[in-house]
Design brief:
Pnp Oxidase, Chain A, binds flavin mononucleotide, 13% helix, three-stranded antiparallel β-sheet, mainly beta, 198 residues
Length: 198
């Protein structure tokens, strides 16, 4: 079996031999209460998993809400299901529970500003978070889809499960579609970017 060499974050790597220091191994008692340092290390290790980037949307009465999410995955093909993980205090999670619906737009590599915007608390100061962004309301759920994205899914909220300091928002996909052919926006090592050239 191949042994796994623990690696340091880019900032922590010694320049001479970046792959060989086993002291960088991240071990912890999973039942211990969390510490800031442990969260930082965990986030740093997990950041080596490259993901796409989405904006997850819902509505609360007349107000449309969205946030940037990389913790997206499809879950089941039959029935069609997906999930996103949202921070415990997330207004979108609370609203998706109340409205019973949410949507996910997969972002393209030229939508870095959109990803930053939907991660910025200042969007709540605007009467409409989606003002300057091309969007359409998905007819069955009424949730906003960002039409400059790559693809979208509209969901019925199936289940919301507490998971540590986050909740898992599980959706049953009622409709979905492809929007345009473009390269995806990628989140890797704490940075937003495109897919690096081969
Ligand atoms: C690339 C990227 C990915 C993110 N992924 C998530 C995520 O998966 N879950 C989450 O809760 N927040 C994630 N965030 C942070 C939220 O977008 C941000 O904290 C947002 O303001 C939360 O909105 P809310 O206060 O309405 O919940 C991400 C931010 C960025 C820039």
């Amino acid at each position: 079996m191949t042994s796994i060499t623990p690696v340091r974050t880019r900032a922590e790597q010694p320049t001479d031999d970046p792959m060989s220091d086993p002291t960088a191994a991240f071990t912890c008692d999973p039942d211990d209460p969390g510490s800031e340092e442990r969260c930082r290390r965990f986030r740093s290790v997990a950041s080596r998993f490259a993901t796409g980037v989405t904006v997850t949307t819902t509505h609360d009465g007349d107000q449309h809400l969205g946030l940037t999410v990389n913790s997206f995955t499809t879950v089941s093909l039959d029935p069609t299901m997906l999930l996103v993980c949202l921070a415990g205090g997330s207004q979108v999670a609370a609203a998706a529970e109340r409205s019973g619906v949410f949507a996910v737009t997969v972002l393209a590599d030229d939508q870095g500003d959109t990803a930053q915007w939907f991660a910025d608390r200042r969007r709540y100061a605007r009467p409409d978070q989606f003002d300057d962004l091309p969007h359409q309301d998905e007819p069955r759920t009424g949730c906003r889809v960002l039409t400059d994205g790559l693809a979208w899914f509209a969901c019925r909220t199936e289940q919301i499960t507490d998971a540590g300091d986050h909740v898992i928002l599980l959706g049953r996909v009622g409709s979905s579609g492809v929007l345009r052919d473009a390269a995806p926006l990628v989140f890797f090592d704490g940075h937003l970017g495109g897919v690096p050239a081969a």
